Amino acid sequence: MESDWAAKRRAAARVHEAALAQAQAAESAQARSLLADFVAKVKALGIAPERLEATGYSGGRPYKTDVVGWYLRSNRTVATDPEGRYFVLQTPGGWAARFTGVRLTPEEPPLTVGRGGRDGEAIDLKDLLALRLAELTAANG
After folding, report:
1. For residues 6 and 51, what is the distance between their CA atoms, to the nearest angstrom?
2. What's the predicted TM-score (pTM) here?
3. Which residues in the chain land under pLDDT 70?
C-alpha cells in the first residue's frame, strides 16, 4: 500500500507542475505581444521580410526554409515571421535537406532569449527587439 508521504509528494509535484505551466504560458503571451508590436513597427517602416535560413546543429552551410521573416539576432539563430511567430533557426538538417530545404515549426517565445546558453548570450526579448528595430531602421534609412 502506498504511503501517505508518497501521495503528498505526488500531489505537491502536480501543483508545482501546474504553476510552472501557468507561468510559462503567461511569459509566452507577454513575449507574443512584444513580437506582434515589433512586426507592426517593421511593417510600418516598409521593411520586407526575407526568406529565412537555418543552420545545422553542427554548423556548416545554411539550409533554405519554408518561412519568410526577420532575423532577431545578428547570428541569425532566432527570427519572427509576419504573423509574429517565433522560430529557432537550428535544425538537424541532413543530406536531403540540402536540396529540399527544411520545414520550421514555430516555438513558444521566451522573454529572455538565450537563457541557459553560454555566458553573455542571454538578452531580454524587449531589449533584443529594440536593438534589432534600430538596426533595421538604420539599414533601411
Report:
1. 53
2. 0.82
3. 1-2, 97, 116-120, 141
